[in-house]
Amino acid sequence: MEFEDKARMIIEKECEDYLFGIANLSHVQNSIIEQYSALFDEYPKAISIGITLPLTKDGLMSDNKKVYNFTDRKLNKITEHISNLLEAEGYNAFPFPKSEKTKDNTFISLNLIAANQANLGQIEKNGLLTTPEVGSAVNWEQYLLMHQLK
Q1: How deeply is 140 buried, as exposed, middle or buried, from its count of CB atoms within 10 A (0-12, 13-18, 19+)?
Q2: Where are the alpha helices (DSSP H) in the chain?
Q3: What is the pLDDT of residues 29-63, one digit of tens each?
């Protein structure tokens, strides 16, 4: 069984609505990627995992912090299992932070860049990544990888 199949099985034990993709960051032209070029030269691949946030009956994202925290805990549990799988399969990988503060005190999400490069959604002018399935109602986690997955 290939890594992606194993990862999807882990994710599906925790939730039904998720996004999963693999990205090559080596060709991305972005100031954040360029700022950390040494890191991305060594770890040019990324795994992107997104869990959709529950929507209300009228299709709007619930603004309930408890719901977001619940989804975040679920994502943390998934990423712990994915970390164990990566280690067991001999991959040199690590998760990277959800957002990074820039010099002008704004934040940019490295996760959104990876998810965008994995063709999971588009980064909009407001800085949110919008997916075709659920818009921006997704909680993301990423891993940087040294090598392509088998």
Answers
A1: buried
A2: 3-14, 31-35, 37-42, 65-88, 110-117
A3: 777 677 777 888 888 899 999 998 877 666 555 56
Q: Rounded to an integer, what distance in angstroms lies between the CA atom of residue 144 and that of residue 150?
A: 15
Q: Which three-class secondary structure state does DSSP give residue 74?
A: helix
Q: Give the position of tokens 């990566």.
A: 86
pTM as predicted: 0.83
Higher pLDDT, 4 or 66: 4
Q: Which two tokens stand for residue 11?
A: 């994710």
Distance, CA of 115 to CA of 46 (rounded, Å): 9
- The tokens describing 6, both together, are 């194993």
| Secondary-structure breakdown of the chain: helix, strand, coil percentages, each rounded to the nearest 5 | 35, 25, 40
